[in-house]
Amino acid sequence: MPNQLPRTLNRFDAAMMIIGNMIGIGIFATTGFYAQYLSSPLSLLLVWLLGGLYAFCGALTYAELATRFPRAGGDYHFLKHAYHPLLGFLFGWSTFTVTYTGSAAAIAIGFAAYFSRILPEALQQWQAPIPFTSFQFPLVKIIALLIAWLLTWLNSTGIRRGAGFQNLFTLLGIATLMAFIGLGFASGKGSWEHFSAVAGSGMGLNELSRLGVALVGVVFTYSGWTVLAYIAGEIREPRRNIPVAMAGAVLTVTLLYILMNSVYLYAQPLDSMSGQVEVGYETLRILFGAGTGAAFALIIMLMVLSSLNATILSGARIYYAMAREGRFFRSAGQLHPQHQIPARSLWMQFGWIALLIVLGSFDQLLTYAVFVMVVFSFLAGLALFVMRRRDPGTETYRAWGYPITQLIYLAISAWLMINTLYHRPLEALWGILIVAVGVPFYYGWKKREGEI
Description:
Blueprint: H1 11-22, H2 30-34, H3 41-68, H4 75-82, H5 85-117, H6 121-124, E1 127-129, E2 136-138, H7 139-156, H8 159-186, H9 205-222, H10 227-230, H11 238-267, H12 270-273, H13 279-288, H14 293-324, H15 343-359, H16 362-366, H17 369-390, H18 404-423, H19 425-436, H20 438-448
Antiparallel strand pairs: 1-2
Helix pairs in contact: 1-8, 1-11, 1-14, 3-9, 3-11, 3-17, 3-18, 4-5, 4-17, 5-7, 5-14, 5-15, 5-17, 5-19, 7-8, 7-14, 7-15, 8-11, 8-14, 9-18, 14-15, 17-18, 18-19
C-alpha cells in the first residue's frame, strides 16, 4: 500500500472545513418547514439553541475520539475499536449508500434548482431527450451531475486545491450571512412585536415531543461538525488543532444560526412561517422588496458549494480507510502517486452520487439520512466511555466537561431517536433496513480477505 495521507491542513483550514460543511441550504428552509411543530418564538429559538448545544457537546466528544485515532475514517475506527469491526463497517456502508452520498446528491440537486432560477425562463424547463426512449432528462439533474463531477475533479487534483476552494467559499458564506443579518435588522421593515411571545407559558410533554420532531431537522442543519474526524489524517498537530477548530467552528455557526432565525422572526410572525419551506427567500422579499429572487439564488448557491465540497472531500476518506483494511473495494485504498489523495475513492463516490441524482428526488434522498446519522453518532459518543475505561492513561486531548458534555450529547441523541421512531417509524425502519443490508457485504469482504 502507498504511504499514509500527508498532513497538510492547518487549524484555519480545519475550522473552514467544519463551518463550510455545516452551513448549507438548511438554514434557509428548516425553520419554515418545522415551524408547524412549534408554538411560540421561545420554542423556535430554544430548538436552535438545543441544536447548537448538541453540536457543541458532540464536537467535544468527537475531538477526543479523533485525537485518539488521528487518521482518515472517523467513526469507522471509533466503532470498530469500541465494539466490533462489523459495526464500523456498517457505519461506512451507511455513509456510502445513504448518508454521505445521499446528502451530496441532495445538495447538488438543491444547488442546481437555484442555479436554474437565474437562467432564462425558456431554458429553465428544458429537458434533454434520452436517445431511443420516450424519456427526458431535466436540466436540473444535468446541472447537479456537472457540479458534483466538477468538485470531485477539483478534489482529485490535491488536498490543497480542495481546501483552498473550501476556505474561499466558506469566508464568502460567512460574510454573506453577516450581511443578511445586519442589513435585515437595519431595514426597519420588520417588527419587534413578533418576539412578544418569547416569554410565553411553559412547555408540557406534548410540546416537548413536538420540539423533538423539529429538532430532527435542526440537527440535520447543524450536521457537518464531524467532518474533521474523517480527515484527521491530513491535519497538522491533530491533538492541538482538532479540538480548537471543532469548538470554535460550532460556536460560530450556532451564533449565526440563532441570529438568522431572529431575522426571520423580525420579518414575520411564527404562524406565517409554518410550512413555508422558502422562509429565507420570503424574509428577503419582506425586508428588501420584490425582485430579490436572483440575489437569493446566488446566496443559496454560495452556501451550498462549500457544503458540497466538504462532503465530497471528507466522504472519500471513509471508504479509503475501509479499503486499506480489506473492507471495501481494494482500489479505493490507493493514493494518487502524484497528488497523494484517494482519487479512486473519490471517483467511486461520484459514481454512486451520480446514480442517486439520476434516480432520486431531493426529498427522497434525505428521508432516511438523519435517523441513521444520529444512531451512529450516539454509538460513537458511547464509544468514548468504552475507550476511557479500556485505556484511561492514553496521552491525548481530554474532552472538556467529561462526562457531563458527553451525557448531554447522548441524551439529546436518544431523544431524537425515540421521537423519530414514534413520529416517523416507517422512515426509521427503512433506514435500519438499509444499514442491515450491509451485513452480508461485510462477511463477503472478510471471506475474500481470508479472515474467516
